[in-house]
Amino acid sequence: MTMREWLIGTGIAVVAFLGMLHVIQIIPVLFLAGLGAMLWVVLDRRNAQSPAGRDVAVRPNVSFDEIGGQESAKRELMEALDFLRYRDRIAQLGIRPIKGILLTGPPGTGKTLMAKAAATYTDSVFLSASGSEFVEMYVGVGASRVRDLFRRARALAKRENKDSAIIFLDEIDVVGGRRGQHSHQEYDQTLNQLLTEMDGMNTSQHPFVLVMAATNRPDMLDPALLRPGRFDRQIRVDLPDKEGRLHILRIQTKNKPLAPDVDLEHIARETFGFSGAQLEAVVNEAAIMALRKGESVIRQEMFRDAVDKVLMGEKTGRRPTDEELERVAVHEIGHAIVTELLRPGAVSHITIAPRGRALGFVRQIPEDDQYLYTKDQLEQQIDIALAGCLAEELQYGNRSTGAQNDFQQASQLARTMVRCGLSRLGIVDEEHLPERLLEREVRFILAERERATRDLLRPYQGEIARLAKQVVREESVDGAEFRQWLNGLAPAELTSAMTTASE
Ligand code: ADP
Ligand code: MG
Ligand code: ZN
């Protein structure tokens, strides 16, 4: 029995006894006691919610080796951290210590991992909090939580016998937005407190606290945060390129049984634009599929499905009618034929299982990560986007609403062409280009591409329906199988159409 419980028990007994003797009026006393209890519970709950309530010595145990594809960010970070590892020499030379490191980049690229690895690398204790945890209705709570966090970091480092602590502030933009922008002052007070804490730190302090923060909106931050002596190191953590994705896939599959047919390089090539977190999800989904199928190893085909799933969402339960399915198949075959004609070997597979909002799709194997596009390449992409609805038109004599996204994409591409000086208008100044002129040029480009794409598709008009039936039946047709079909129907007229196309 704790002291608290003992006191409560005795109190109740005394009150009851006095009440029985009619020495005091029992009702108001009970009322007051109830009120007191309620207050107790509320305060207790708030305490439990505040970060101070759950303090544990986190040993992140993440090393830089477990972070893939961020070679330059890792190198920059390790360099910055060396000041913590060689503090004596830094102090001797009178170098100003780094107090804050800001990691910027899209979600899921490994910023949290980097902060944890930094703690391992420098043998520091690690505490983390997210910007949204500091946002409270009550003025002053955010600020006091910041103060608390720094106090706890020092206490924890002392308790663990460490020279330094790393505080990781995720989503710092929530509290670190420009001051004076918010309707109430709570945010400003929280930010001011953070700045005060950082300004108060110095090298002679023991243990030393390093603040690492993450955001994907560095442009939103209050400039005061980025001044020297605060977050004066910024490290960009970008989406991984192909090599990086391969590296991440290797890391994420290290402890998983893979079938001999698994080609991680192929998966890396197909996952352009994926973040580390998405790649982790792909590997995990693939493993789940193996489990569901009762297999003991993960096969390439499961990775393929997992990529689709992460990209497009879970297969939806709704089942379109047979006519709809066939139309979708025709549409997708249109995309696939033109893809293959313009970029032989580029079709990965055609699927008509509805996923997310799409009813079907053709996945292309991206050539390699690309950051620059030529005019030809942009035109090819427009052709591929338009081919779906044009195939429908050739087959049924009409179009459907299924091409809305395709059109959006095509007109975006056409707009890019105009802006980049790749249209008839030549070099243009985007700012002074009248909207009407831009629209007219975009429409011209699209009309021209429409004509060219229809010409590409026409020789296949009679054959599309047959393949569409197969796609409906099998739900998915592999790129290799599709190419076989395409090459199989190569009478003279087709061959000539293909050679002109690939020129
Ligand atoms: P961020 O903080 O940038 O949003 P996280 O570090 O929280 O991203 O990443 C979430 C998860 O995604 C990690 O736990 C890890 O499994 C995976 N991941 C993300 N980036 C990488 C990477 N570069 N290398 C290996 N795994 C990664
Ligand atoms: Mg994170
Ligand atoms: Zn389409």
UniProtKB/TrEMBL annotation:
Cofactor or coenzyme needed: Zn(2+)
Transmembrane segments: 12-43
UniProt enzyme class: hydrolase
Record has Nucleotide-binding as a keyword: yes
EC number: 3.6.4.6
Keyword Phosphoprotein: no
GO BP annotations, alphabetical order: protein catabolic process; proteolysis
GO molecular-function term, one example from the UniProt record: ATP binding
Key words of the record: ATP-binding, Coiled coil, Hydrolase, Membrane, Metal-binding, Metalloprotease, Nucleotide-binding, Protease, Transmembrane, Transmembrane helix, Zinc
One Pfam match: Peptidase_M41
Family: In the C-terminal section; belongs to the peptidase M41 family.
Domain of life: Bacteria
Cellular-component GO terms for this entry: plasma membrane
Full protein name: Vesicle-fusing ATPase
InterPro entries in the record: AAA+_ATPase, AAA_lid_3, ATPase_AAA_core, ATPase_AAA_CS, P-loop_NTPase, Peptidase_M41, Peptidase_M41-like
Record PANTHER family: ATP-DEPENDENT ZINC METALLOPROTEASE YME1L1, METALLOPROTEASE M41 FTSH
PROSITE patterns membership: AAA
Organism: Alicyclobacillus acidocaldarius subsp. acidocaldarius (strain ATCC 27009 / DSM 446 / BCRC 14685 / JCM 5260 / KCTC 1825 / NBRC 15652 / NCIMB 11725 / NRRL B-14509 / 104-IA)
Domain AAA+ ATPase per the UniProt entry, residue ranges: 97-241
